[in-house]
Amino acid sequence: MTASEQPKPVFRIIYRSHSRIPVGHRKKVLADIFLHARHRNKDAHITGALLITDHYFAQVLEGDRMTVEQLFDQIRCDPRHEDVTVLESGYVDTEPFPTW
């Protein structure tokens, strides 16, 4: 494998947060989040995964560092959740969620 064929490291942020979305509104609000995020993230070449439980979110965001950090800054300020905690951030050799 030549240097040009080596996988390029990607930047990753993993965070968790507490949902503030009222139970009766979750289905619609989460559907809106998914619809918006799919298009935005695809256009920005951001991949990752989102896990949702009754009261918590956990998400992995991967891509260009500046793009991921800008998106995370927007996510951090979103009033639909609180107690946003970064669990890990840094460069990784591969994207485990390349098609998300």
UniProtKB/TrEMBL annotation:
Gene3D superfamilies found in the cross-reference section: 3.30.70.100
**What is the residue range of the signal peptide feature?**
none
Boundaries of each BLUF domain copy? 10-100
Q: Which GO terms describe its molecular function?
A: blue light photoreceptor activity; FAD binding
Q: Which InterPro entries match?
A: Acylphosphatase-like_dom_sf (IPR036046), BLUF_domain (IPR007024)
Q: What is this protein called?
A: Sensors of blue-light using FAD
